[in-house]
Model the fold of this input.
Amino acid sequence: MPVRKAIAEKEGVYFITFTCTNWLPLFKNCDAYDAVYNWFNYLKEQSHYIIGYVIMLGHVHAIIAFSNTGKSINAIVSNGKRFIAYDLVKRLQLQNSSLILNELSSSLNNTERKEGKLHNVFETSFDWKECRTEKFIQQKLDYVHFNPCKGNKLVELPEQYEHSSARYYIEGVQGTYPITNFMDLRDIDLTASNT
Done:
């Protein structure tokens, strides 16, 4: 369900999902999980908090606490998708993955072509849900963490999946990427403008 409306607030906790074009397994094919981690690092530098995540083969789920930086959350996520997309295209070019690059090019519409865009790496919009309660955050964390255990069943147990925050929430041990526990948000003022 693509969500095309803008997020009105400039701060808050949001469950974000973005998907590779045609559900292509680009993160796996390009071994590009670190491209998402680089975006997470940038978000942290801008005073945002990564609460939970899973990077699947062709999509990303993240729960992010956005501080008020004066920028819209839509712009922050869109810019992140754009920089990750550049990285993925560069890796595909280095791998000489012309079939995939052609598929990403053929998914462009006429307007995008006229604007000079060369590839559609991600679906245009992204899904989002505001997380107003700790109960809802926990619900979304459970959904995110069990994602690798469903469908293609990449692992048996959530904490076994390397590109997820499940290990932290289940075993108390930071995984591949260190996150902030959502309970710590009680002591953080996301509304204070950092501009």
Summary: The mean pLDDT is 92. The chain has one domain: 12-187. The beta strands are 12-19, 49-55, 59-66, 127-130. The longest helix spans residues 73-94.
